[in-house]
Amino acid sequence: MTLAHAIGRQLEHPRGIGGWLTGHAMRVVNARPTALTIDALAVQAGGIVLDMGCGTGDALEALARKAGSGVVYALDQSDAMLAVARKRHARRIRAGSIVLNYGDFAALPFADASFDRVLASNVIYFWQNPYAVLVEILRVLKPAGRLSIYATDGTDMAKWSFVKHGTHILYTAAALDGLMATAPDSANFRQQRVSVGLGVHGLIATLDWSAA
Ligand SMILES: C[S@@+](CC[C@H](N)C(=O)[O-])C[C@H]1O[C@@H](n2cnc3c(N)ncnc32)[C@H](O)[C@@H]1O
User: Which of 90, 122, 150, 163 could in theory staple to 37 by disulfide, Cβ–Cβ 3.0 to 4.6 A?
Assistant: First the structure.
């Protein structure tokens, strides 16, 4: 396996020491995309929020501050990432304002209509069946809830060697619009293209769910 392939696999499912190192690299690289996507999410005080694919839990403190008396749930398939997040957020976990969950995007371990907001930052590349995951998110989103997705623009990502080994599904603006358009009619979505530094661009898709 090449180094590029190994990095792609660690980004998809961080494991062991390599996963730990990858997690810390993600913290630096993903800081601006995470902040922009949290802004788009417009978390309200008292809100119940899900960060799907939380990695090392970088988004959790900002989400918890915005949610105030609400609760932020974080889900990941990686024990290595959850261990880092558990250590970083021990105080809030004890207080019950952050709850970590082991789980898979394909079958979110939550009841219908659980969340006011769902954050999906830098994870859409790993949705093996993107339509099914979108439907699963809408299942756990409350009526009037909001989903915000961040993906680095596929036209930029296509230049990176670590995405060329089948670990990542890339999204251009048109592909992301195409996926969001498959959501039921009662969902409204919009997309913005943002600069995230070093000449790289990101796509933020925000979906407002109005299903009763
Ligand atoms: C590239 S990291 C992004 C982490 C964080 N959201 C960020 O922006 O820094 C992708 C994360 O998604 C998780 N992940 C990938 N596929 C998953 C799945 N099917 N179910 C749950 N978590 C998954 C990985 O374990 C990893 O922690």
Answer: 150
